[in-house]
Design a protein that fits this description.
alpha+beta, Thrombin, subunit H, Methane Monooxygenase Hydroxylase, Chain G, domain 1, 2 domains, five-stranded antiparallel β-sheet, about 45% helix, about 20% strand, elongated
Length: about 190
């Protein structure tokens, strides 16, 4: 059965599984070993990277158009669910989470976000768990941002608000000195 041909257009945002969201900036022809190959040139502005993917290998590489807003909403709803079983040792779970992140699939990203998010403001995370969580959240937020015309930070905050992830406690924050407030009131 022949593989279906994906139809991408210049200027379109696409998702490359291991890199996240990029913009297809042009299609060019390159000669490699006496063979002309059509390449899609994808710019990943956030990573300061340009990737060339042969058109014939696009589907095999996992390149895909952005997900729909409906599917993104379904992924976020899945991330709201109860965390999965944690019976595996951390090294295996971390490897599975890494695989899910590199899949680029919004539902698999949602699984990582669901399993690793903090449930209360006092919950703590290991460094590696936090890094995995932030990478999965960022990948989800990249698509969410484009779908909802937000910047990446706003998209991340919006997803965490929808999920009910508590804000981190700023241990360096201090309450405003009352005397300073009184002085400004007298003016």
């Amino acid at each position: 059965m022949p593989a279906k041909k994906l139809d991408f257009k210049t200027g379109q945002y696409v998702v490359y599984p291991t890199q996240g969201v990029g913009k297809l900036i042009r299609i060019e022809e390159q000669t490699i070993g006496n063979q002309k190959i059509k390449m899609m040139v994808i710019d990943f502005e956030r990573n300061h990277m340009t990737l060339r993917v042969p058109i014939e290998r696009a589907e095999i590489s996992g390149l895909r158009p952005l997900t729909s807003a409906k599917k993104m909403d379904e992924a976020i709803a899945a991330a709201k669910g109860k965390a999965g079983a944690k019976r595996m040792i951390w090294a295996r779970r971390a490897a599975q989470y890494e695989e899910n992140i590199n899949s680029g699939d919004p539902m698999k990203l949602a699984e990582v976000v669901r399993d690793l998010q903090r449930r209360t403001a006092t919950d703590t995370m290991t460094f590696s768990a936090r890094q995995l969580y932030l990478r999965a959240l960022e990948r989800m937020a990249q698509e969410f941002a484009i779908l909802h015309k937000l910047d990446l930070e706003e998209a991340s905050d919006k997803i965490e608000d929808i999920l009910g992830v508590p804000k981190e406690i700023d241990l360096n924050a201090t309450e405003e000195d009352e005397e300073e407030v009184d002085e400004t009131d007298e003016e």
